[in-house]
Amino acid sequence: MQIRHAVAAGSFYEASEKACRASLAKCIPETIDSVELPERIVAGIVPHAGWIFSGQVAGEVFRSIAQQGQPEVFVLFGAMHRGIAQLGGMFADGGWRTPLGDVAIDERLAERILGGTNLIERNARVHADEHSLEVIVPFIQHLFGEAKILPIAVPPVGEAHEIGQAVGRILAAEQTAAVCIGSTDLTHYGPGYGFVPQGAGQEGIIWAKDVNDRSIIDLICRLESEKIVAEAELHRNACGAGAVAATVGAAVQMGAKRAKLLSHICSAQVSERLWGQQSSESVGYAGIVFG
Length: 291
What we know:
Layout: E1 3-4, H1 17-27, E2 43-46, H2 51-66, E3 73-78, E4 88-90, E5 95-98, E6 101-104, H3 107-114, E7 120-122, H4 137-144, E8 148-153, H5 160-174, E9 178-183, E10 188-189, H6 202-221, H7 228-235, H8 241-253, E11 259-266, H9 267-275, E12 282-290
Parallel strand pairs: 1-5, 2-9, 3-8, 3-9, 4-7
Antiparallel strand pairs: 2-12, 4-8, 5-6, 10-12, 11-12
Helix pairs in contact: 1-2, 2-4, 5-8, 6-7, 7-8
């Protein structure tokens, strides 16, 4: 059986099961106010930075889903940080291994999707060194027990939203107890990222979060999947724009009528809160659910 081994454990998150579960317990709240949540969450957007920076944002999304039940499968739309492709790349069989153990791929659903669209291909290689989905898999293992996963890396191409739409139509037709999750961080701002349109200082970091991040968050919350990749290309406000476009596209096909922004922070805020330090660089993180 094909197994993808963890490559980010010990850097983006803890390397042992005990330490992982302790960190997850800190990241995931006990409850989320359900008053403003969609009646049925079909999809979510989570960040993929180190847990110390973005784990609480991801934890809110997964807790919101867990409050509504136990999905059988999570279709995961990931970023492509290394290399590029024109088609979605699916890890279609076997399992993924993290410090919490192995989680199975939904091979039946994989075959159904591969047979239902020419926008996605089998491509385990694209997942080999990519952390954007690995860092969220332990949240699923911790909260959802026997749930399976289906990882799909999505390039930031014009057809990215169509990739998600194709998946969403299949999930809706099969009435599978599935939730789609898209993985992205937002604006990478500062000299180290080569992006300082508002200057290399605190004013620029504030602009990155309150203006540049909000530009793409607003598109996401309006469910305008076809505009997301172009927005990110123009404003550099999502490293996983393809994954986001696919997630929104899938959510609409699965019946989503609205999106709810649960939280939006940046790494500079975390640094100041944890260590009392002002950072010259920052990355944005948002947690969003759809239903």
